[in-house]
Amino acid sequence: MDEPVDSKTVDPSSVDRFPKQKAFNLGDVVTDAAKILTEEERTKLEQQNKRLVTPFQALKLEQEARKHWDLFYKRNENRFFKDRHWTTREFSELLAGEDPASAVSSSSLAKPDNVERISVEKKLLEIGCGVGNLIFPLIEDGHRDYFIYACDLSPRAVELVRKHNLYDERYMKAFACDITTEEVFQTLPEASLDIVTLIFVLSAIHPEKFQSTVANIYRLLKPGGVMLFRDYGLYDMAQLRFKPGHKIAENFYMRQDGTRSYYFAEEEVSKLFCQAGFTVMVNSYIHRRTVNPKENIDVPRIFVQGKFRKPERT
């Protein structure tokens, strides 16, 4: 169950910059204000600076990013992440019948040889698909009126997607690629997609590659296409829990398994997408406290969630 978040932990001095999300759960605090840190939390962040990841180690983590994610999926397979049945509730653009982009023919999209595709107009790409925790719930819930592309840095994750009993190349295609590079354009042409999802993915990418990633998404979308975003917010509980020896750079950390995580400010996300040419539909922090008394869980989380549109042709 979700309980109210104490509004005293949110900075009231911030002025609204963009339209905010609506509250999807009881107790959500939706705001463009960052969390106000307690003295104890400030001390925790200061302690993290006492021992940083060395430049050599940071470079090695970047060079071996694919390897670490492959090892992650080798260990966990499909047991780690829960299916995201919440996405259609919080991103209505994913619902069958919704059309966020202009009706542009996309019959030129690449397709597997000898596979007859179901005739659909809309095209969706999930970046960082993992083992399919977003795309397969969509299919289970009957949202099959668009063709789904799904990519991940980890070839092992993509292989697990392809082995899923719901995987069917008549209406989906999973492929491995590094979205920070031009590699994605070997599978998808520019201006070919109606929707792109980037959910808990950008945070795993080095901050120096944020701009190239968002620029590639902009190129992939049709005019009027929509980018759906959610990721970890600044001062989220997980950020405050890191011990010395895990901080790579400001708001950027190494986990025990070698994967990495960045924690975003709301204004930073808006600026990143605006600089790439997007217009901001909505963008805000979501402060959410999830409580499960049975499992003795009481977790305050902070996310940044937004929707960004590629402008129509002028």
UniProtKB/TrEMBL annotation:
Its EC number is 2.1.1.-. Pfam families: Methyltransf_12. Keywords: Methyltransferase, Transferase. This is tRNA N(3)-methylcytidine methyltransferase. PANTHER family: METHYLTRANSFERASE-RELATED (PTHR22809), TRNA N(3)-METHYLCYTIDINE METHYLTRANSFERASE METTL6 (PTHR22809:SF5). It comes from Anopheles melas. Residues 125-226 form the Methyltransferase type domain. InterPro entries: Methyltransf_12, METTL2/6/8-like, SAM-dependent_MTases_sf. The keyword Methyltransferase applies. It is an enzyme of class 2 (transferase). GO terms for molecular function: RNA methyltransferase activity; S-adenosylmethionine-dependent methyltransferase activity. Gene3D superfamilies: Vaccinia Virus protein VP39. GO terms for biological process: methylation. S-adenosyl-L-methionine-dependent methyltransferase. Belongs to the methyltransferase superfamily. METL family.
